[in-house]
Fold this sequence. Notes:
With about 500 residues, this protein is an alpha/beta fold. The protein has helices spanning about 25-30, 35-45, 55-65, 85-90, 100-105, 120-130, 155-170, 240-250, 255-270, 275-285, 335-350, 365-370, 400-410, 410-425, 440-450, 465-470, 475-480, and strands spanning about 140-145, 175-180, 185, 215-220, 290-295, 305, 315-320, 355-360, 390, 430-435, 460, 485. The protein has a seven-stranded mixed beta sheet with strand order 6-5-9-8-7-10-11, with helices on both faces. Mean pLDDT is about 75; it is low at about 1-45, about 60-80, about 225-235 and about 470-498.
Amino acid sequence: MEYEKVPTTPGEHPSPSPRSLGFTRRAALSLGGAVGFVVFLAGLHHTGVTPTKEQLVDKTGELLKYAGLHRPKKGGEVKEVYNRKAKLESLYGMGKYEGRTWLDHIMSLDEDGLAPATKYTQKFLHEWQNPPIETCKDKLFYLMDMRDTQDWGHGLGSAIHVISYSLRNALDSGRIFAWHPEAALGRAFVEETSLDCLYVPATHCPQSVMTPENSVIGGAGKPAPNVAGIEGGYEQVPRVFQKELKRVLPFTYTTSALKYWWRSQASAYTMRMNEASLAHMVRTRMDAAQHEAFTRPKGSAAPTSIDLPWPLPAGTISMHIRHGNKAQEMSLHPLTDYVKAAERLISTNPNGYHKMAFLSSEDPAVFDEAKDISRISDSETTSNMDWLWYTSHIERLNSGPFEQLEKFGNRSETTLSWMSETMLAMECDGFVGTRGSNWNQILDALRCVWMDSCKHAYLDVGTDGDWDYMFVLLSVAEGGSNFVGLIGFECTAEISAG
């Protein structure tokens, strides 16, 4: 029987055989596998030979084989083991992953590192929303109407969360979710276009097949249509996923957790960036002029510039500091609160997390403050003493998101700049935020669906009151108004190459 070997990078397999290195199967068995591996290393050390990475991987594979820890090949194929960099390349759709679908990316991730039932849910959403194109004319549709929801004034994160309720209503009424052709969400966040110019459309079914006979209209502030036996209102999770959650979990989710889980799944599906947006993400990420990185050793007169590597180093922590107009809904916290929380995490996990942070905020003062922070604690029970700060050069204004969109001119590029910071956050392994903020909730959602980072630490510096407040307000947000609608779906805005 043949066994898998552990590639060092995707598609790379060790070439030296165990026998060519003087490590025979008989020796491995006689020494009990593990002892043989130690003897192999000791022998190389004694002769002054440094083992190559390929030799170590090959020997480790042989050791695991005899320890019974390697699974046999299935169907003659070697399962590809993705490393961290490869996962991020897949997320960005770059290199050999260019042209991959979002579903392909999600299905390639480690299921144990995702939110519960993520692969099942995302696959179902993709197939439900995108049936064979020739069958679209036979489907039923739920059209989200935004015409009565002008002047809501909330940000993109809040908008995405409102969409999750209409998507839930569509699924529970046996319909495909789509934008109303005369009232698509878009003008608030992009230049005279639908959000389809930035994100993959919710469905590939054309508008021409959506008729008064096969469609119902819903949306923010509107109850679910009373069709197919589904009464109006806002359930927590589409019924099709409730059964799957019960199957994979040994407990019953709380009401708030159910709502949080569904909004995470719906947000991740809604925000799948299209190929043009992903190409913009890659150009921005790889352009050194778009970023700034620095450190300030304690006692130094000024910060020192450092490189921003690709990808961000393992153990980096994302800190999204929500200020602006959010004080009306939650308590705001200074950067030092986030740093203190992160340092407590690092001091108890020095092998897993380090004093490296990707910093994002709408408040320019946060970045000035970071340049004065070497560290909060002088304790040496940590990974490294002084912080390394990674940031992006985007326009910032300590205000609400709509004031930013108005001030910065091109709405599409402003929204894309927010998405570029979101992608950098996905490169991190730890997260510190305030989930009273919709955008912090979005980051928490995407790390659990777009990346298999859900088992990594998320530290909330907010209060329980801030957290409860989000769920108390949901009934208000669902019935409130939101943004200006847009007639049509034709994309006219140009995304700059910069």
